[in-house]
UniProtKB/TrEMBL annotation, chain B:
Residues 287-478 form the ABC transmembrane type-1 domain. It is found in: Cell inner membrane; Cell membrane. It comes from Notoacmeibacter marinus. SUPFAM superfamilies: MetI-like. The chain crosses the membrane at residues 42-64, 110-128, 140-158, 164-180, 192-211, 223-246, 253-271, 283-310, 322-346, 358-378, 415-440, 460-479. InterPro entries: AA_ABC_transptr_permease_3TM (IPR010065), ArtM/GltK/GlnP/TcyL/YhdX-like (IPR043429), MetI-like (IPR000515), MetI-like_sf (IPR035906). It is a multi-pass membrane protein. The lineage of its organism: Bacteria, Pseudomonadati, Pseudomonadota, Alphaproteobacteria, Hyphomicrobiales. Belongs to the binding-protein-dependent transport system permease family. HisMQ subfamily. GO terms for cellular component: ATP-binding cassette (ABC) transporter complex. CDD domains: TM_PBP2 (cd06261). This is Amino acid ABC transporter permease.
Amino acid sequence: MAINTDMAGGHAGSGSGGVLALLNDTRYRGIIAQIALIIALVALGWWLVHNTIENLRSANIASGFDFLDRRSGFEISQLPIIFSSESSYGRALLIGILNTLIVSAAGVVLATILGFLVGIGRLSTNYIIRGLSTVYVETFRNIPPLLVIMFWYFGVLAVLPRPAGAIALPFGSFLSNRGLQTPTALFQTGAWATGVALLAGIGAAVLLAWYARKRQLATGQRMKVLWPSVGLIVGLPVVVFILTGLPVEFEYPTATRFNLQGGFQIKPEFLALFLALSVYTGSFIAEIVRAGILSVSHGQTEAASAVGLRRGQILRHVVVPQAFRVIIPPLTSQYLNLTKNSSLGLAVGYPDLVAVGSTVLNQTGQSVEVVAIWMVVYLTISLTVSTFMNWFNRRVKLVER
Amino acid sequence: MEEQVSGYVADQQIPSRPAPASDRGIVHAVQKNLFATPVDSVLSIVFGAFAIWLAWSILSWAVFDATFVGGDRASCLTPEGGESEGACWAFVGAKFSQFMYGSYPIDLRWRPNLVGIVFVLLVAGFAIPKVPFKALNGWLLFAVFPVFALVLLTGAGFDVSGGFTAFLMLMAATAAYLLYGDDAGGLAAWPGRVAAIALIACFAGIVMSSLDTGTIRFAGITFTVWSLLACLSAILSVGAIALGMAQRAGVQIWRPVLPVIVATIVAVLLAEDYGLRPVSTNLWGGLMLTLIVAVTGIAASLPLGVLLALGRQSDMPAIRTVCVIFIEFWRGVPLITVLFMAAFMLPLLMPSGVTFNQLLRALVGVALFSAAYMAEVIRGGLQAIPRGQYEGAQSLGLSYWQSMRMIILPQALKLVIPGIVNTFIGLFKDTSLVYIIGLADLLGTVRRGFSDPNWITPSTAATGLVFAGFVFWLFCFGMSRYSLFVERRLDTGHKR
C-alpha cells in the first residue's frame, strides 16, 4: 500500500486514504475503468437477456434451434439443390446461403471486369471513352443500389414481352418477362475425356510456367509461355472433344403458347440483382482502379520508358504490379460490400439468406435465432473473404528490407 | 576585367511563338484525342455511335415520347389502347407531394417546409467557409435545430418522464465531466471528487427511479423522487466542475454547465404544449423521411464514432477489445439485417411495457450501424496525427481527455471531413433500405406509387424510379463535389 501511495504522486497525499490514491494513479485508474466497463457490459447483457426471456415467455414463443428440423411448408423459386415444401427450415436457410453465394460470386466477377475496363477507360486519352466512363461512374456511384435493383426488375425486366413474344437473342436464347432462357448442354458418355483433357492442360500450363520461371532465374533467358499455355488449356480439350466424336447435345428453348419450354431459365429476380450489384459495385471498383494507377508515380513510368520498355511492357511490368498493392485492400471491401448488398434481393423476391430468413422469421416468430443465423453467416463470409484477400495482399506486397 | 564576348544581350524576354500550324486547332485535337492510332479510331467510332444511340434513346424516352400531363393512367397510354413507349411524367406530377412528404397532413406541410428552410440555411452557413459566426452557427445547428425540428414536426406535447429527463442530464453531465473534469483538478481536488460522486449518485437515482415512490409534476414533466434526485445530482456535478474551474484557471466556466442546461431545456421544450396539432410519425414519409433518417443517423453516429475510435486506439486491452468487436460486428453484417434486428428484436430486448415506435427503431439501427463506419473514418484521422502532437500535449501536463479535446480531435476531425461526407453519402443511399421494414421513405413512396392501380402502365415503374434516382443522385453528387472541394482546400501536399 505504501508503494502505491508513493506512485500516486503529490496531489493525493492529503490523507484521503488508499482508494483515492489508487484512483489518482493512471495505471490503476486504467484497470479500474476496464473492470467498471466489463461489469457494466455484463450487467447490460444480463438485463437484455433477462428482458428477452421474460418477453418470449409472455408472448409464448419457443426458443432454441429446434425449428430448423421442422417442415417449412413454403416454396422457393430458385433452387440450387433439391427442396420442396416438405423440406425443413434448416434446408431452406441452406438454400438461402447458397443463393447468396451464387449471386455474390457472379456479381464479383462481372463487377471486377466492368470496374477494370471503366477504370482504365477513365484514364484514356480518348475523349469519347473517357466521357462515357465518367458518366457511368458518376451516375451509378450516386444512386442507392436498392433503387438500381428495383429499376432493373420493375422498370426493365417486368415490362419485357411475355414468353410467347420473347426477344430472340443469339445462340438460341430468349429474353422475356420470365427471365433469360438459354440452351443447356447435355453431355453424353465420353464427355468426361474432355474434362480430363482440360484439367491436364491446366496442369501442364502451370508446370510450363514454373519451368520457364526457373530457367529465367537461372539463365536470364525468357521463354514464350503465353501461346503454348493457351494451346494446352484450350487446344488440348478441343482436340480431345473432336476426337471423341463431339459428345454433347444442346437443348434449345422453344416458344409454346404460354411459356418457353426446355433449356435453362435464369430468373428475372436473379438477373435484376446480378446486373444491379455488378453495375453499382463496378462503378466503385472503377474509381479504385483509377486511383491505383494514378498512385504509381510518374517517375516510374518515365524511368521505365528510359530503360527502353514499350508501352505494353511498362503497363505489365511496372505500373500494374505497383497499382495492385494500392488496389487490393479497397477492392476487398468492395467485394464484401457486394456480398452484403446481395441481401437487397429481398426487395424483388430473390431467395437469398435474408429473404428466406425473413419468411422463416414470420412463420416461426423466432426472431432472435434467425437474426443470429444471419449475423453468423455474414460475419463468416466477411472473415473468410478478408482472410483470403489479406493473404493475397501479402503475396503482392512490396518486400522491404 | 572580363572582356564582353557576345555582342548582343537581349534586354527583354522574347515573346513565345504560337505552336506550329499542324499542332493547333480542332482538327489536331480531334486527331490526337480520337484518331491517334487505328485501334483508337475504331474505338472512337464504335463508342461514339454507342454514345449517340444512348443519348438519343434517353432523350426520346424522357422527352419526345413522354407524357407530361394527365390525371390517370389513360393519359400515359396511346389512344388506340396501345402502350406508349416514353416516360409517364404525369405520374410523378400527380404523386409529387407524396414523394416529398408522404402522408403528412396537407394543411400542416408548412411545418416540414419551415424546418427544411432553416436546415438549408444553417447547413449552408456551416459549410461555406466565408460565412462568419461559425461557432454560433454550430450551436444552432447541433443543439437548437434538432429540438426545433422535433417540436415542429411532431407537434411536441410529449409525455416526458422524469427518468428520461434525468437520463438526458446524466449524458450531458458525463460529457462535461470527461471533457472538463480535469480542468477542475480531476479526482485530486475536492470539486472533481464531488462531481464524480454526484455523477454516480445521478446514475444510481436513474436505476432506482423505476421504483414507484409518488410523483411530482414540475415544468410539465412528471418526476419521481428518485429521478428528481438524479437530476439534482447532475446539476450538482457540473456545478462542482464549474466551481473547480473557477478556483483554478477561472476561464469559460460556463462551458461545462452548458450541456446540462441544453438537456434541461430540451426536456422542458418537449413537454411543453404549443397548441400544435400532433402528427404521428407513421404519417411521415417521402424525401422528408429520407432526410430525417439520414441526418439523425449521422448526427447520432458522430459522437458515438468518436468514442469508439478513441476506444480502439486505447492502451487498455479490455476497452480496445470491446470497441474492436463492436466495430467489426456492425461492419461485417448488412444494414438490412441490422434493421430487421431493430424492428423485431429491439422490442424483445426492452422490459415489457417499453415500446418504441417504428421510426425510432429504424433510427437506433441506422445510428449503431453508421457509428461503426464513422469510427473507422475517425480512426484514420487519429492515426494521421503525428506522434509529436500526442507527446507535446502530454509534456504540457494535459490529461488524456484534455489533450483529446484541445489538441488531437480538432486536428483529426478536420482531416477527415471528406471521409465523414463520404460516409454520409453512403448512409444517405442506405436509408432507402428502411422501406423494406415498412417505412415510407422516398423510395418507399415511389414503390407504393407505381403499384397504384390508377397508374399502372408499362413505363410507370421506370419513370418513378428514374425520378427517385435523380433526386438521390442530386444529393449524393452535390455532397461528393463538396467533399472534393474540402479536400482540395485542406490539401497542402505537393502534387505533380
